[in-house]
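Example record

One chain of 177 residues, shown exactly as stored in the release files.
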Amino acid sequence: MILLITGASHTGKTALAQMLLEKFHYPYLSIDHLKMGLIRSHQTNLTPLDDEKLTEYLWPIVREMIRTACENRQNLIVEGCYIPQNWTQDFCKEELRNIRCLCLIMTSRYLTSHFDSIRNYADTIEKRLDDSDLSLMDLEADNALYGLWPEDTHTRLLVIDDEYAVDAESLPTDFAM
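Predicted structure tokens for this chain:
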């Protein structure tokens, strides 16, 4: 099974991937690690702030890694915000049988009520670059974009509204590993 975890910045994608790794012992790929490796090795002139261009640049690489895992019948968790909304178009029906995508979205109400704790948990799994300019308005705009994602057989939207209860046990049943 290939599980894609996407969503806006600060929604807990990396923390969830880490929990799934520990529970199921499946490897996971952080698209942010791939991004920073390519940027720091000067394989691209893009910067961490070039989100749209980074999706165009990184997705073909990640897509083929997913395809390779499918061909080899390997389990893999892939997490990051550089997964395009139309990701299913890049895979055949046989491949899609083994791929699921979970999109984490925080509501405006949740963001407003928990903004300080979201900032405090930003470095739980990995150290971030300077995040001091993070604003509630930016988080709301970013989450609103993910709220437009289509939900279907392969993509589930996990809306975080009241409390943050995202863990391996809270996944939809059809995402059971």
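Notes: The CA atoms of residues 32 and 165 lie 23 Å apart.
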